[in-house]
Amino acid sequence: MSLHSATVVALESLPSPSILADPGLEIPQGHSVKFVCTSPSEYDTFRLKKGSTRIMDVENVLPYKKQAIFQIGPVNEDTAGSYQCLYQKESMWSQCSETLELKVTSEDVPHTSDPVPGVTSAPTLQSYKVWNGVCMALAGVVFLVLGAIIGEAWYNQ
């Protein structure tokens, strides 16, 4: 095998991501579950699959982001099943993560209220729009105050 063909073989797929379920793999009917998928490097798109069916894709809008959170709920018996995630970087897709088997129960399942270590709630595009609006409003106020100071100084000359 030549060096060129070894390079091509090595680049055919990306390493598998990790997947976990928060608050766990047994969810009471009517509650929600978060699937947290983490890639070893930045990604363009993360995909959550149930069996061979695509459930949803998450596009990466932030540089250096390695994690995607898929919120599903309220769950019912149709939500139970085998879940995996995979990610895309440029035109290449990773191997699938390990499979998590989600069970939906009819009664409350005790679980800890502690969040999963290292998992923070993902900022949404809407929160960035609100933050940008706040920054623009503040910049406008600063601009008006600066204009008033310059106008006052020019008027007093």
List the helices and strands and how they pair.
Blueprint: H1 3-10, E1 18-22, E2 26-28, E3 33-38, E4 45-50, E5 53-59, E6 67-72, E7 81-89, E8 92-93, E9 100-105, H2 125-155
Parallel strand pairs: 2-9
Antiparallel strand pairs: 1-3, 3-6, 4-5, 4-7, 7-8, 7-9
- Class by helix and strand content? alpha+beta
* Separation of the first and last Cα atoms: 83 Å
SSE order, one letter for each helix or strand: HEEEEEEEEEH
Question: Can you tell me the overall shape?
Answer: elongated
How many strand units? 9
| Biggest sheet descriptor | 6 strands, mixed
**Rounded mean pLDDT score:** 82
Stretches with pLDDT under 50, minimum 5 residues = 1-10
Number of helices: 2
**Helical percent range?**
10-25%
Radius of gyration (CA) equals 23 Å
Strand content: 25-35%
Write up this protein.
Strand 7 and strand 8 (92-93) form a beta hairpin. The relative contact order is 0.19. The longest helix is centred in the last third of the chain and has 31 residues, at 125-155. Mean pLDDT is 82; it is low at 1-10. Helices cover 25% and strands 32% of the residues. It is elongated. It has 157 residues and is of the alpha+beta class.
